Amino acid sequence: MLSLIDERYNFAFLDEGSKREIRRKTLKAVAIPGYQVPFASRELPIARGWGTGGLQLTLSLIGPKDVLKVIDQGSDDSVNAVSIRHLVENTAGIATTEETGEATIIQTRHRIPEQPLRENQILVFQVPLPEPLRVIEPREEITRRQHAEMDYSSMWLSLYEDIVHWGVVTVSHSYPCIAHGRYLFSPSPIPRWDIPKLNHAECLYLFGAGREKRIYAIPPYTDVLPLSFEDYPFEVESFVGRACCKCGSSDTFLNEIFDEASGQKIYQCSDTAFCKKRQREREI
Amino acid sequence: MMETKILSQQETDDAFDEHDIPLMKVKGLSKRYGEGCEKCTMDDSISRCPECGALWACRDISIELYPKEILGIVGESGSGKSTLMRCLYFEEQVTHGAMYLSIFRSGKADLFKESSQIQRYIRNHMMGMVFQNPWMGLRMHISGGGNIAEKLIAADMYHVGSIRCRAAELWRRVEMPLERMDESPRNFSGGMQQRVQIAKALANHPPLLFLDEVTTGLDLSVQAKVLDLVRQLQQELGVAMLIVSHDLAVIRMLADRTVVMKHGRIIEEGLTDQILEDPQHPYTQLLVRSLL
Description:
heterodimer, A: alpha/beta, Rossmann fold, seven-stranded mixed β-sheet, three-stranded antiparallel β-sheet, 6 helices, globular, B: alpha/beta, six-stranded mixed β-sheet, about 40% helix
């Protein structure tokens, strides 16, 4: 395994000073759940906006004994996930896996694995837009003040307008949530399906936004509540009457796929590792 | 001027009834734009300092507003009346002075010294504001009902049904057509926009309402309707109001008491009739004479 390491780079690509800075900011983020901590986003061999925030967190956290899993929209095999995994393999030489249960650190884009995570696991999110209020208020000066004063009425108002116009809240991903009764945060573009997994989870959730230079965190066993009106409770996506065409699961987040041969819509688990595991179990 | 001040002092001292305790007390409010220097800080007759260029928009303003009372503030443009209003609504930070509300911590806490969270709480729960320009007071990209909802949400109401119910009630109260509640205020006429602003300001039953030149820019018949509405609401709901206007006709129609401002200071105060019938200060005399 060690022979694969490119010796020209420091262990896990980043220099130790940078890693320490990112870990310091991460500790601060863990201490203040949901608060966006600014950090000095480093240059990486991938472009900003392609998961550099998550990657910097991963690189600063991993040690020689860690096992890494990288997923993109639930899939281990997408180009971006594969590239990031190779980068870490080449510069740190650590073991990687597709098994959710075996990984100590999981870097993800837009999904939380179906299999519940444990206390000794860390889920690292790649975040494109860390500021939940940005869609409503373009000025950083104002959004910072709103966070400081816990003034989230503008976000509530946008949900209210949704209900008035459409009868439902139309936010499909990045559903605004409150961490520990204090900070409003964006859970990155995960579907609503994954939001309940943030509440009182056993694992640590870390969020890194490389382009926007922000780190925030949801520590284990933290209250995470999606904003919802008393008479319009928060709802996850419904897949009633549908099941995965490969493993037959009806309790997972499903992707809709158009099958050209039959001209019909079929459904498939978004979490490929989980789907494969179910398929194996089924065969036994 | 002195007589009226002494009179109101005696009245407070003889207070038995809760209506005799001022709802809002402002003491020695000053607002300075710019650095300021020794000269203009010591000499309080200076409005624009010749030494350092600082502008004293308000200087040593003390007013009292009683429950259910309408107090008018009149003065020419640039006299500091809008700045005063913005300071009281915590939109500007004061340089000196104190403000007390009898309904907040028994009127013992200086609101200007409170944290911005507390100030926001007070603004959302105890105050309403109607701006001269509806674009300042309303969000034009969301519905009229949504504008009212904003104030209700800010005052901790998180039930869509109740919010819509209360918004509709207010909408009717300000005589707006109910079927246009989900429309953007951008589509409304100036008079209608002011009505929406008033509905928004009244949303959470504030005991205190600030009105800044509400009728300026409206044509005469619409002005009369908006003024009627303000007076009617005051009588029905018993809200105390602070009305800023440069228009003495508005002040005459609405205000019980009036203060006259010039160059950032109060030059005369008293009952509105008294001010209009028997002005003492030369500037007030000029103002009243130019009205007739």
